[in-house]
Amino acid sequence: MSPKPMVRPGGRSARVQESVHAAVRELEAELGRETLTVPLVAARAGVTPSTIYRRWGDLQELLSDVAVQYLRPDSPPADLGSLRADLGAWAEQFLEEMASPTGRAYIRDALLGDSDGSNAGQCSVYAADQIDIVLGRAAGRGETGPDVERVIDRVVAPMMYRILFRPSLLDAAYARDLVEHALDAS
Q1: CATH number of the domain that residue 22 is part of
Q2: Is 167 domain-assigned?
Q3: Which of 37, 55, 161, 165 has the most crowded CB, counting CB atoms within 10 A?
Q4: Is 161 found in the same domain as 77?
């Protein structure tokens, strides 16, 4: 595995990353995932294949990086006025997004191109940050609840296991049931 170089935020590096990520998403939508190659992505992005190899190592690492960006939440969790409502709504949305065919593909990509665990760790941070927002709001309202790790263990982990290994019964009722058990245990 080639080490990923330190990348400065902004500037040329950010433009290259965005261009390459956009090329992957566009080509995947137009031609299908199985046709993706580094030279094809490079041509669409307007960079040389060596730029991609230098930055990402190989196609799988690039797909993993694109997946991690896709899995990053684009907004804070909804504030519905109570811990139970907020966490329940967040869990439903998380499950819906991750269990979708696109979500599953991105989860697989994030894990497959992640030999050092950093991408999986980043995805975990995304979930933990969202949960922390929900729990912080609840604490601000005087509500008590579990800590972030308990929610990860009791809500996120079972969902991810089912998404990856037993993809059945993945609905809003399942998500709400996990939240209820996590809150009852705290």
Answers
A1: 1.10.10.60
A2: yes
A3: 55
A4: yes
Question: Given pLDDT bands bounded at 50, 70 and 90, which one contains residue 117?
Answer: confident
Q: Which residue has tokens 């308990």?
A: 150
Assigned domain for 5 exists = no
Backbone conformation region of residue 11, classed left if phi is above 0, alpha if psi is from -120 to 50, else beta: left
Query: Is residue 114's pLDDT more than 90?
Result: no
pLDDT, tens only, 50-96: 999 999 999 999 999 999 988 899 999 999 999 999 999 999 999 99
Same domain, 76 and 143: yes
* Domains held by the chain: number: 2
Summarised one tens digit per residue, pLDDT across range 125-142 is 999 999 999 999 999 999
pTM above 0.85, yes or no: no
